[in-house]
Amino acid sequence: MKRQLLIKLICLIILGFPKTVSSQAESISEIRNYVSTNVLSPIFRQYAIRYERLINRNGFLRFGLSYQYPKNTDSYENISAFPFKISNKNTVITDVKVTSGYGRFLKANMGLYLAFDLFYSYSFYKDVYYYDCSGMTSESWVYLESEYNNDFGIEPQIGYKLWLLKKSRVKFIFDFYTGIGFLINLQEHITFGQGYGCYINRFEYFTRPRETKKTRLAPDVVLGVNFEIAF
User: Pairing mode, if any, of strands 84-87 and 46-54?
Assistant: First the structure.
């Protein structure tokens, strides 16, 4: 008798489990839209938003926009930390970045996914004093300069969407992702004058600004955590 009851119980569990999984999958499969923001961006003075649209059970399109700007109290400088010089150039800059890409879940509309984004970024600083101070007056200079960068690139990524509150009508998700891509950087750099020492001694304005243009290929590391609302 006990053996028969045990067999019936096992059968009920086996038959019921697929229905439970199926009901959860159906609930998740109703999701078509994801709106997210990168929770790490404010650390780097960036504000980013991304929209994703599911186009079938596994594939989705996505579009992103980010913006970064310096504060009025910022100065652009290199800080000597022997044997290296540390620059704050990446934070004291205005930057606008637009991305567009495609992703694909390895399992329908949930969990692990692969994606790639194409992006364009425009960043610049204009008419700022750049303090290149090494600690010794004889090796320290101040430059008045501007710089403009146009970046084009691709960012392959792998990510994982961690679903929260699956039973609610609106879903909440943490999206963890990383990747390594590359970019082509077109840079224009203009120097209007220079001064000796970090206190702008004997500052000299050039009769003609010194202009340099560079094109380079560089790696691009992607790492982020997005908080998403899915509906």
Answer: unpaired
The predicted-structure confidence for 161-192, as pLDDT tens digits, reads as follows 998 876 667 789 999 999 999 999 999 999 99
Measured in degrees and rounded to the nearest 5, phi and psi for residue 182 equal -150, 160
Domain that holds residue 10: 1-30
Asked if 123 and 136 sit in the same domain, the reply is: yes
Residue 158 has pLDDT above 50, yes or no: yes
Supply the mean pLDDT for the chain.
81
Give 35 or 134, the one with higher predicted confidence: 35
| Residue 26 scores a pLDDT above 50 | no
Domain match, 21 and 46 both: no
CA distances from 110 to 2, 25, 36, 57 (A): 40, 9, 16, 9
What's the CATH number where 153 sits?
A: 2.40.160
Say whether both 66 and 160 belong to one domain. Answer: yes
**Residue 128 to residue 77: CA distance in whole angstroms:** 10
Query: How many structural domains compose the chain?
Result: 2
Please count the other Cβ atoms lying within 10 Å of the Cβ belonging to residue 228. 20
Give the tokens for residue 145: 């300069």
Give the bridge partners for 176, in sequence order.
160, 225
Tell whether pTM > 0.85. Answer: no
CA dihedral 90, 95, 99, 105 (to 10 degrees): 40
* Cis bond before residue 83 (omega within 30° of 0): yes
